Amino acid sequence: MIQLQDVSRTYASDEIETTALGGIELAVEAGEFVAIMGPSGCGKSTLLNILGTIDRPSGGRYLFEGTDIARAPEGELAKLRRDRLGFIFQSFNLIDELTIAENVALGLAYRPMSSRDKKERVAAAMDRVGIAHRQRHHPYQLSGGQQQRAAIARAIVGTPRLILADEPTGNLDTENGAQVMDILEQLNADGSTIVMVTHSPAHADIAKRTVHMLDGRILSSARRAA
Ligand SMILES: Nc1ncnc2c1ncn2[C@@H]1O[C@H](COP(=O)(O)OP(=O)(O)OP(=O)(O)O)[C@@H](O)[C@H]1O
Ligand SMILES: [Mg+2]
């Protein structure tokens, strides 16, 4: 599905150049569930942002379903994000002024679809993560776990090909973190491809493969024993 070839990302300031990523080789097949681990500052979020086309590589190639998109025009990337990617962040990133249902519907923004179809899809996504009863509430009225489940509903409502999650359980207690991991595991079992950054070895174990990073490089990639 995706392939990074010799991808690098450097940040240049007045005097120092920071290499956030260097020589990254990574392929993810459809249906995989990959966990990315490594110490703070090793480049995990940078890598995930490049996969999500929120950031661009400084060098190398990024093949998405066969097409090199490392230097694709922004409009093309925006369309790819809209139609094929779903994002989940550590801090939920819900909009407080909107209800939960409206937040979830943002995952369908600009999709050519009748409002009735959108409503049905939003309802199904909220149902799937167990927050249907909170649809008229606002994010600040929900617990952290409920907010993250709403964010997952927003990420999956457009049936993305690839789900990218940056420390999705980072702000949650054990119980709510486990619930979020159950949902991700189920989504993967149903065919979603997932790449997830995590600091939790237990949560990485739920993924089918763990990629370890250090200092902007990939150290190892190991599949979970069956
Ligand atoms: N906008 C930026 N300008 C300069 N350097 C940056 C910028 N963004 C990230 N970096 C640097 O790139 C490196 C990788 O950062 P990144 O956020 O990818 O780390 P991370 O592995 O996600 O860490 P954490 O576990 O703390 O989230 C760090 O050294 C960071 O300081
Ligand atoms: Mg990070």
From TrEMBL:
InterPro entries documented for this protein: AAA+_ATPase, ABC_transporter-like_ATP-bd, ABC_transporter-like_CS, ABC_transpr_LolD-like, MacB-like_ATP-bd, P-loop_NTPase
Domain of life: Bacteria
Start and end residues of each ABC transporter domain: 2-225
GO molecular function: ATP binding
Keyword Chloroplast among record annotations: no
ATP-binding is among the record's keywords: yes
Keywords on record: ATP-binding, Nucleotide-binding, Transport
Record-given protein name: ABC transporter ATP-binding protein
Biological source species: Sphingomonas echinoides
